[in-house]
Amino acid sequence: MAMFPPVFSTLFASTAVKALLGSAPLRVYAAGEAPQDVAKPYATYQTISGVPENYLGTLADMDGYTIQIDIYATTLSSVRAVADAIRTALEDVAYITSLREPPRDSPTNNFRYSMDVDYFTTR
To answer: Strands 62-73 and 42-52: what pairing?
Structure first.
């Protein structure tokens, strides 16, 4: 659907992302959908906000979204490599607006990297 940002399909089209996150399946999941004990590294994404472009006298023809992407891995080098590949894949179609390397995720002790991405999709 054109209304929703093509996060998964954009990442699936990237050979660099597939080299790090597999392809059958690609370990990229909507937030809360990653299987229990999924192999690492993997990434999740969720919509933080969405706003239609509103006009007087006509319907919105574009929506703007902020998507948060979180990457989880067992090593710092792995989480950074995946973050770099995802950033490179998305920069052709969206704007990276925030990069965060929070402390290790508790209670799993996995490394985590987070970024926000702004998409504009036509309707």
So the answer is: antiparallel
Sequence-distant (6+) residues with CB within 8 A of 49 are 65, 66
In whole angstroms, how large is the CA radius of gyration of the chain? 15
- DSSP result, the chain: -TTS--HHHHHHT-HHHHHHH-STT-SEEETT-SPTT--SSEEEEEEEEEEE--BTTB---EEEEEEEEEEEESSHHHHHHHHHHHHHHHTTTSEEEEEE-PSPBTTTTBEEEEEEEEEEEE-
pLDDT by position in tens, the chain (length 123):
567 889 999 999 999 999 999 999 999 999 999 999 999 999 999 999 999 888 888 888 889 999 999 999 999 999 999 999 999 999 999 999 999 988 888 888 999 999 999 999 888
